[in-house]
Amino acid sequence: MEAEIIVKKESVKTEKEYVDIDYTLTHVPKHARKNWIAIFSVLLGFTFIVTTMAAGANLGTSLMLSDLLKVLLIGNLILSTYVGILCWISAKTGLNTILLARYSLGKLGSKWTSIILGGTQVFWYAFQAAYMGKVFTASLGLESYFIPITVFWSLFMGAFALWGTKGMEIVAYLSIPPFLYLAYKIPAASIEAAGGVEKLFLIEPASTITFTAAITIIIGAFISGGTQAPNWARFAKTPKAAFQVGFFAFLIGNIVMAISGMLGGLVMQDGDMVNILMKMGIIVMAMIILIFNIWTTNTTAAYSFGVAGAEFFNKPNKAPFVIGGLIIATIMAVTGIYEVFISFLTFLGIFVPSLGGLIIGDYIFNWRKSMPLIENVNFRVIRTSNLIAYLLATLGAYISSVYEIGLPSLNGILLGIGLVYVMKKIYQALGIADDHEIQKEAGLVYKAE
């Protein structure tokens, strides 16, 4: 009997060693909520991403400055509002994006969310790691060592994601001040090279792009990251604080990054940020600053695909999935992923927004008044009504991009929200049950007054 008790105690001790302080598969409790400054720092550091700057540089070769500014403002207002709403929902429910998708799409349906969001973050990580390798080797004249240097930085940066949100906060605080300097230096050098601000508005682009396609690229530059902002905003103390943090972090960060790249690309008529930095003669200084920048964003990206993997396999420990994602991303980084950057952004700008719209619509029409605790819900395998809504919204966004009808990203968001309601009414009219089974006496996350 004594031996049995000892075994049980050891078993309990073993389980406690694996307690997930990041609340990967459940609601963040009130006592674990954080000050808005910590969350704002992580999200702002997340948006200080060199690939947004690179997207701006690509657009800088294709539009006049007056049009670039319009694209920048419209695209980022749409993106920031979208992110802010998702952050509000996450703080209200205490859930990350993928767990919100479990309510929206069911147990199996949410796996698709894990794949698309986790997968896009692996792609992002690969882009960033490749960029780090390219900047580092170009600045030091070590181009022949691109592969080993890229592998080193990829594994080094990902290690901090294993530390959790605390590790990301520390890196974020370190990265913001120096990168703000780079964001100032590139526009200043661009204005000087052009011969003044007035001359910037007279530069003719070397190539062309449609207005809607440009906005899609701006939104696509961070729509995947924005859809996963709830991973951190769920720790906010109030929904209002979460909305404000998400909205302003993304609005400020993306505008600062994109305008820096746009001005560099416009003046140099070169869409490659590394080439732009070399032409400006600031490649070595930029290398030092970009180390912190890419370190920050890749740490959050690794954290995101770790969370996605944990939900996919229903395991509270994200570490194995961070490691697995790092291996995949590192392989991609050294095998040419850098070359399909703009195509990837266009894909994200069309296919991801409808997923966020679906989550927003499901919250508004199904969970706004009250939400049962995730532990008290017997989830359907697939909520077919919402799955159909998602597929139709994605199709609508794609068709609108092909035929240039409105803004594909915004269309995807609005269709995702509206079609949740439409499909719900159709299922009710047909008498088809599609709701999750909620256990009797289920506890609630909140209840509307």
Automatic annotation (TrEMBL):
Keywords attached to this Swiss-Prot or TrEMBL record, sorted alphabetically, are: Membrane, Transmembrane, Transmembrane helix
Indicate the segments annotated as coiled coil, or none if absent. Answer: none
What topology does the record note for this protein and the membrane? Answer: Multi-pass membrane protein
Q: What domain of life does the UniProt record list for this protein's source?
A: Bacteria
Chief location of this protein?
membrane
Cite the GO molecular-function annotations of the record. Answer: cytosine transmembrane transporter activity
Gene3D superfamilies per record: Hydantoin permease
Could you tell me where this protein is found in the cell?
A: Membrane
Q: Name one Pfam family in it.
A: Transp_cyt_pur
* Transmembrane spans: 36-59, 71-91, 112-133, 145-163, 170-186, 206-224, 245-268, 280-307, 319-338, 344-365, 377-399, 405-423
Q: Name one GO cellular component term.
A: plasma membrane
Give the protein family.
Belongs to the purine-cytosine permease (2.A.39) family.
Q: What is this protein called?
A: Cytosine permease
